[in-house]
Write a structure and sequence with these properties.
- It contains 9 helices and no strands.
- With 264 residues, it is mainly alpha-helical.
- The chain has a single domain, classed as Up-down Bundle (de novo design (two linked rop proteins)), CATH 1.20.1440.
- The longest helix is centred in the N-terminal third of the chain and has 93 residues.
- It is rod-shaped and about 105 Å long.
């Protein structure tokens, strides 16, 4: 009897212990799953933050490049504006009656120097200034003494170099603007640009006359040499052409040499 009661009690204890372990194991598994899910969520959030920071830094870098490129163009534009008064004074000394053309250049210069202009507006005003300079150089073509003036040639050369630097800076600036605008307008970088309040930048180009206007500044040509202004006169040659000499026939000479003489 005692052995039977003991065995029954052991069986009941085993059953009770087994039933208690099953809920404990399921609870441990569910807790591990929650921790894994939390780790995945935290990792995704960290990656998104790193991506947003990298995108923000890239947008700021592009914006700074655009601003730096515009400052370089602005320096060259100011140098161009400073050279124009000296050019006008030089032309006035030889073509003072061309008052309308000279005043048009100075008015276009004043409009281009007005502050607070956007890059697009500055491009329009600089295009009008280029047209006025084109008319000025067209007037200078009618004055050979002005074209031979050393001061005029030096100013023209300096303006040509300045125009080349402005064109190079324009290409660099517009390339950075294109890249920045692409980032601002495309997904998903546009979300970061909107949060950072980074907008589109303007191109430095005109839509009208400046593109169609020919290049008014060309490399200055050296003044012509005084001798080249008076071409040599053509003189007729009084020498008569020499007659052609005929070579003697060797057969005829031999025949005359060995021909028999007549005896009188």
């Amino acid at each position: 009897m005692q052995h039977g009661v003991t065995a029954r009690l052991d069986l009941v204890g085993l059953v009770q212990s087994g039933v208690g372990e099953i809920p404990l194991r399921s609870t441990a598994l569910s807790t591990t799953g929650v921790h894994v899910f939390k780790f995945i969520v935290i990792a995704v959030i960290v990656l998104l933050v790193l991506w947003a920071v990298g995108m923000y830094n890239g947008l700021i870098k592009l914006r700074n490049l655009v601003q730096e490129a515009w400052r370089q163009i602005d320096v060259e534009l100011k140098r161009r504006h400073d050279l124009i008064p000296n050019l006008v004074e030089t032309v006035k000394g030889y073509a003072g009656h061309e008052r309308g053309t000279l005043e048009g250049v100075m008015q276009a210069r004043s409009a281009a120097m007005s502050g607070g202009q956007t890059p697009a507006a500055a491009a329009q005003s600089e295009g009008m200034l280029s047209q006025a300079l084109g008319r000025l150089f067209a007037v200078a073509e009618a004055y050979p003494n002005l074209k031979a003036n050393e001061n005029f040639l030096a100013l023209q050369q300096e303006l040509t170099s300045t125009e080349d630097r402005i064109a190079s800076g324009r290409r660099y600036y517009n390339a950075n603007v294109r890249e920045l605008n692409t980032k601002v307008e495309t997904v998903p970088s546009n979300f970061v640009a909107g949060l950072a309040k980074i907008g589109r930048a303007e191109y430095f180009e005109s839509e009208g006359a400046e593109r169609e206007a020919p290049s008014v500044l060309s490399a200055p040509q050296p003044p012509p040499h005084p001798k080249s202004l008076h071409p040599p006169l053509r003189t007729r040659s009084r020498t008569r052409p020499r007659p052609l000499r005929q070579r003697p026939d060797p057969d005829l000479h031999t025949h005359l040499r060995f021909a028999p003489r007549r005896v009188r």
